[in-house]
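ok trying again, last paste got cut off:
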Amino acid sequence: MQLRYSGERYLSEAPGKSIHYEHLHRYAFAKYFAKGKKVIDIACGEGYGSYLLAEMAEDVTALDIDEATIAHAAHKYKKGNLKFLQGSMTELPFKTKECFDLAVCMEGIEHTKQQSKVFDQISKVLKKEGILIISTPNITAYKKHDGNKNPFHEKELSRIELEDLL
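nice, full thing came through this time. structure:
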């Protein structure tokens, strides 16, 4: 299963070097927090980051809302400790509370207007002593640099707005 590059999701086959560095360094950083941990990768996209996390983690559950993207990820990135699930970050599909040591959400929160609900969901599945690693474009820098709105983003945040949500 091959995904077509639309500009919405990063694909490891996408053209251009800078986008690769921009996306991969986030997961390269996060994977060291994953060592020996149970990890959820929320809005995992095509799965490259989940695969990197699985190099260090005990177990990685990767979640994305798009069924075709999850099928692609499950086909492309196979590891015994990595599973891909289709689901929404506003309604995480887990009955057990506090079941993850690390929650990762890279460039996902801006794709919903229900950001408080995402944080409520994460707080339910993340252990009390758990770690959240999240990234999102800073609207202040992003608008200044690019000058246009990303049509796939529902609500972009400034640093202060993200801190307030946290």
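cool. Residues 97 and 119 are 14 Å apart (CA to CA). The longest helix spans residues 17-30.
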